[in-house]
Design a protein that fits this description.
Elements lengths: L2 H10 L6 H8 L3 H12 L3 H15 L8 H10 L6 H10 L39 E11 L2 E10 L4 E8 L4 H15 L5 E4 L3 H4 L1 H9 L3 E4 L9 H13 L11 H18 L12 H12 L1
Parallel strand pairs: 1-4, 4-5
Antiparallel strand pairs: 1-2, 2-3
Length: 295
């Protein structure tokens, strides 16, 4: 197809389909299309790159939170190689640069009278296999009809949220539910579970459930929030990328619960590029890929 015809065809349908899908149907390369655009329109490379970045944002609404590194990985997954500085330049000129997320503050209160567990994690949030090290914590979200409390369990192996529980209180049952659901979903036992020294995690009932699944308890030092930094970082991401943009204090709790569940279980676990995983694979995709290689 002549460059002029290719440019006209794709440009006319740009709002209906992505450039990637149209090039595939037409059996032409994306790089060939963009070369034709440069020749015909005189468009600069950073402007062409910005078009691709905006397409990535448009694929899934929550992708609009991507910063430079995630956009670079998303482009690489589409076989578009570009330096991080090139991505940053295009995003800056397009007004798309994002600020770094704020750290979430721990919500739980320590029980001074309870027997404490040793800190086995010691800020080493890496794991060689799934279900080796889990992190857990609680956060709160204001809603129109009260506060929603969220307890989550994160697997250090692939940063997947493997357990989730939500309620209008932060009693120990919330944490028990999150941990038990994670064990049942993963078929896991013998995990190291790390948390802060909140009374929910030091309660006798919580420790009974840990014993039932053969879990070993690990706890942060008193007043040392960085001992569970990976978990707190997840909550900061949840709030910055989703909840702070919604004014949850004006929404009913039932709606906020649904939003949180969809963001975590569908987008965060299965679609969102995760820079700590090879190739930026989302947590579930990385777990599945690793399982396939090991088979």
């Amino acid at each position: 197809m002549k460059p002029e015809l290719l440019y006209e065809y794709i440009t006319l349908r740009h709002n209906e389909h992505t450039v990637h899908s149209m090039c595939r149907v037409l059996h032409v390369s994306e790089s060939g299309y963009y070369r034709s655009v440069r020749r015909i329109t005189g468009t600069k490379p950073w402007q062409l790159l910005l078009v691709k970045i905006r397409e990535i944002y448009a694929e899934i609404p929550d992708n609009r939170n991507y910063g430079v590194r995630r956009i670079q990985l998303a482009l690489e997954q589409r076989r578009i190689r570009v330096s991080r500085s090139g991505v940053r330049r295009a995003m800056k000129r397009g007004g798309l640069l994002k600020s770094a997320p704020n750290r979430a503050n721990s919500l739980t209160k320590a029980d001074a009278t309870a027997q404490k567990a040793e800190n086995l994690i010691r800020r080493d949030f890496s794991a060689q296999v799934p279900n080796q090290k889990w992190l857990t914590d609680i956060t709160q979200v204001p809603c129109a009809d009260g506060k929603l409390y969220i307890a989550a369990v994160l697997d250090c192996y692939n940063r997947e949220i493997v357990g989730l529980a939500m309620d209008n209180n932060m009693k120990k049952e919330l944490c028990i539910h999150a941990f038990r659901s994670a064990c049942q979903a993963q078929g896991a036992s013998g995990i190291i579970l790390h948390s802060d020294r909140g009374s929910q995690f030091t309660s006798a009932d919580f420790r009974k459930v840990l014993a039932r699944y053969g879990a070993i308890q690990s706890m942060s030092g008193t007043g040392r929030c960085y001992d569970n930094a990976r978990m707190e970082s997840f909550f900061a991401t949840l709030k910055k990328e989703k909840l702070y943009q919604l004014q949850t204090e004006k929404l009913p709790m039932a709606q906020v619960k649904s939003i949180v569940f969809r963001y975590i279980m569908t987008y965060y676990n299965r679609q969102r590029i995760y820079t700590a995983n090879p190739g930026g694979l989302p947590p579930v995709m990385f777990r599945q890929a690793a399982r396939g290689l090991a088979a």
